[in-house]
């Protein structure tokens, strides 16, 4: 069977602030020739992140280079490899790395500027050629749909909990997660698997029940409990505060996180905050004697560590019940934009 030389691919051609109509489907896009250390991958599934929605609407504050194929998360099968490829083999199921040059920590400016689907062409295409350095083998315990969610949200959660060597997650720790986005949902599972106690915030009783099923020990409804940071802190032993807080809400919730963190605890800032929001001041950090850490997803080394943990603990990422086809990309974007999802939104590229 001959290898493909062309692919269908979605492309962000222009920014449209009020719609996703700047994304167009292109037919018969030529594939580059396979280099010595390149890998040809048939992309089978792609999961979405808020970043994917923000880029075509002009809301993304980091490097993009239009036109660009969107998407960073994916799982697929290796169809062919260059003669010097050693990390993967034909037939392997692989996942893409969010920042292609982020192989190990510390992250560099070059690595930070190598994001799939923004700075370089991403995953929303049937076939793609990647350097072997920016692929990892998918956990054998997961389906291709589940594996397609790992690139961004789970790796970000893993980095938040295990990326700072002086404060890695351990049994007995207390962890606070916010909301029901992809990072928070998998962070609950990672923390529970490690023997930590998890307090999760949400806005509804239906979501609270789902969080309990994932293993969260305590749930706080932030619509009902205005000072939820203090309420969460009161749950910890002696009211000492949390060892780890995954800060998702930005300026709207950072004050609550400061109220909940213990001395020398770690608040990890996840995602990007808009420039119009008031950022935490240095004195806020000093007053609470804590570490505030910003992260940019995670490295290939961390990805491989995370995948080993997923296999050993049998963790399964939560996927939304509605799976979209490749041709339904804009519908998938709008579905997530309207926050109709619970769990990761996945586009099935090929069967």
Q: What would you note in describing this structure?
A:
With 351 residues, the chain is of the alpha/beta class. The protein has 2 domains: 197 residues, Alpha-Beta Complex (Quinone Oxidoreductase, Chain A, domain 1), CATH 3.90.180; 139 residues, NAD(P)-binding Rossmann-like Domain (Rossmann fold, 3-Layer(aba) Sandwich), CATH 3.40.50. The chain has 11 helices and 15 strands. Strands 3, 4, 5, 6, 7, 14 and 15 form a 7-stranded mixed β-sheet that branches. It has a 6-stranded parallel β-sheet with strand order 10-9-8-11-12-13, with helices on both faces. A two-stranded antiparallel sheet has the order 1-2. Strand 14, helix 11 and strand 15 form a beta-alpha-beta unit. Helix 4 packs across helix 5 and helix 7 packs parallel to helix 8. The longest helix is centred in the last third of the chain and has 14 residues. The protein is globular and about 65 Å long. The mean pLDDT is 95. InterPro entries: ADH-like_C, ADH-like_N, ER, GroES-like_sf, NAD(P)-bd_dom_sf, Zinc_ADH-like. GO terms for molecular function: oxidoreductase activity. This is GroES-like protein.
């Amino acid at each position: 069977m001959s290898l493909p030389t062309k692919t269908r691919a979605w492309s962000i051609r222009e920014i449209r602030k009020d719609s996703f109509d700047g994304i167009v489907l292109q037919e018969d896009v030529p594939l580059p020739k396979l280099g010595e250390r390149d890998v040809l991958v048939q992309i089978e599934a792609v999961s979405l992140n808020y970043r994917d929605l923000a880029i075509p609407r002009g809301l993304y504050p980091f490097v993009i280079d239009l036109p660009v194929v969107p998407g960073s998360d994916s799982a697929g099968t290796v169809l062919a490899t260059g003669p010097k490829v050693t990390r993967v083999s034909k037939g392997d199921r692989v996942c893409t790395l969010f920042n292609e040059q982020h192989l190990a920590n510390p992250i560099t400016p070059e690595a930070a500027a190598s994001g799939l689907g923004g700075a370089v062409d991403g995953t929303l295409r049937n076939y793609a050629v990647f350097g072997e350095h920016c692929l990892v083998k998918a956990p054998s315990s997961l389906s291709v749909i589940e594996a397609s969610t790992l690139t961004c949200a789970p790796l970000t959660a893993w980095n938040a909990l295990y990326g700072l060597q002086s404060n890695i997650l351990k049994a007995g720790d207390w962890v606070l997660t916010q909301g029901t986005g992809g990072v928070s949902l998998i962070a609950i599972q990672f923390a529970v698997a490690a023997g930590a106690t998890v307090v999760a915030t949400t806005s509804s009783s239906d979501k609270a029940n789902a969080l309990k099923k994932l293993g969260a020990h305590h749930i706080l409804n932030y619509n009902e409990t205005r000072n939820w940071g203090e309420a969460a802190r009161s749950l910890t032993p002696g009211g000492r505060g949390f060892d780890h807080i995954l800060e998702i809400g930005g300026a709207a919730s950072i004050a609550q996180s400061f109220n909940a963190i213990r001395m020398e605890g770690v608040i990890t800032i996840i995602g990007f905050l808009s420039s119009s929001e008031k950022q935490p001041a240095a004195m806020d950090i000093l007053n609470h004697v804590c570490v505030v850490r910003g992260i940019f997803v995670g490295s290939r080394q961390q990805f491989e560590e995370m995948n080993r943990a997923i296999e050993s603990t049998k963790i399964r990422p939560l996927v939304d019940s509605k799976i979209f086809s490749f041709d339904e990309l804009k519908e998938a974007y709008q579905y997530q934009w309207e926050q109709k999802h619970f769990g990761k939104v996945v586009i099935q590229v090929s069967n």
